[in-house]
Design goal:
Layout: E1 2-6, H1 15-25, E2 29-35, H2 36-39, H3 58-69, E3 73-79, H4 103-116, E4 123-126, E5 140-141, E6 144-145, H5 147-165, E7 170-173, H6 191-198, E8 201-202, E9 207-208, E10 215-216, E11 219-222, H7 246-258, E12 261-262, E13 268-271, E14 278-279, E15 286-287, H8 288-304, E16 309-313, H9 341-354
Parallel strand pairs: 1-2, 1-16, 2-3, 3-4, 4-7, 10-12, 11-13, 13-16, 14-15
Antiparallel strand pairs: 5-6, 8-9
Length: 356
């Protein structure tokens, strides 16, 4: 099992310091954002050509180069549609970049990105938490699930584009959010229900249905944040906390058997976000020593379930601006740079996994 970090600090001006600390902690993989709207704020005239003058790659170029120079495997997560690639009539309460993204436009962009980073990036994650309306909307339309259908289109367009450039590219699904709304029509679709829809399987018995364009990917990703500790199960059967990944594995295996996924072979299982906030600094967080123990336990529980890659969410805490509730204090370092007990816990996991 490869372990590493996902932290926006890796795109910040002082990223070299934090990439060094990630490597020192034992990270071998880092997840980084590829914000489509920032790279392509205007519609390119030649969208599959990375040299189109409207593209703005400089920040991503520097982050990828700095990470790979430190021996890190880079996962690029593409998300955030530019306004010209969103659907019409986006509601005012729908976040910018989330409303009915155009699949063909994303496929063209992924062709440009794949060409740009050929030989540097081999792991590509398509979108983020698409079972939540804050990332992909609408979730429901005309009383039917819309987000899984649109997400399958986005995923397949990206898969086709990136595999055409290099068949060795690994296409990773978006990590799904861990919890959803039990009733239809809400802003969150439960992750198991979401993947059943993406993979054209119906009901608890996972009966295959007609699927003219099966989903194509190599690794299934999820974000199993826990309301409680890493050994506590989600209360609803279609939600997925840390010890519940068998619920997703069951859906994935049924899709492979039914050939409602391509290629029809067993998929890797990745966790591209997981963590808890600690106290200090967050007064509502987990006490620091318990935070370290939960990190150790979570890694063990995920490894036992056959997870291939885990990226812990945040290496460094965020400052509590505007407050602790709106920010993350889940890092291995305080915002001041002082290490927490969780740093030693992460290094101990590294040593165990590497057989040291």
């Amino acid at each position: 099992m490869q372990i590493g970090f996902y932290d926006p600090v890796f795109a910040a001006p002082d990223r070299a310091v934090w990439l060094d600390r990630a490597a020192q902690a034992g990270s071998t993989v880092v997840r980084m954002d590829l914000n489509w709207s920032l790279v392509a704020p205007q519609r390119p005239a030649d969208p599959t050509n990375p040299a189109d003058p409207t593209y703005r790659w400089a920040n991503v170029d520097a982050a990828v180069a700095d990470a790979t120079a430190r021996g890190q495997r880079v996962i690029l997560t593409v998300w955030g549609a530019p306004p010209w690639a969103e659907g019409a009539n986006r509601p005012t309460d729908a976040p910018i970049g989330t409303w009915m993204p155009n699949a063909k436009a994303l496929g063209d962009f992924m062709t440009a990105a794949g060409r740009r980073y050929a030989g540097q990036v081999r792991a590509w994650q398509i979108w983020n938490e698409p079972n939540l309306s804050q990332h992909l909307g609408p979730q429901w339309r005309n009383r039917r699930m819309f987000a899984p259908v649109r997400y399958r289109q986005l995923l397949n367009a990206s898969y086709t584009a990136l595999k055409a450039i290099d068949p060795a590219n690994v296409i990773v699904t978006a990590g799904t959010g861990p919890y959803g709304d039990p009733r239809p029509g809400g802003n969150r679709i439960m992750p198991v229900r979401f993947w059943r829809a993406v993979l054209c399987l119906d009901g608890e018995k996972l009966k295959p249905r007609s699927c003219p364009e099966p989903a194509s990917f190599d690794a299934l990703a999820h974000h199993p944040y826990g309301v409680r500790g890493p050994r506590s199960h989600a209360r609803n059967d279609d939600d997925v906390a840390v010890p519940d990944l068998a619920r997703l594995r069951r859906v994935e295996r049924a899709a492979v058997r039914a050939k409602t996924v391509r290629p029809a072979t067993r998929k890797q299982l990745w966790v591209t976000e997981v963590s808890w906030d600690s106290s200090p600094p967050d007064p509502d967080g987990v006490p620091a020593d318990q935070h370290a123990q939960w990190l150790t336990d979570a890694m063990a529980v995920l490894e036992k379930q056959g997870v291939n890659v885990v990226t812990w969410f945040r290496l460094r805490d965020q400052p509590p601006v505007p407050n602790f509730g709106a920010t993350n204090q889940s890092g291995l370092y305080l915002v001041t740079g002082e290490p927490k007990p969780a740093l030693q816990a992460f290094m101990s996991v590294r040593d165990r996994l590497s057989g040291r």
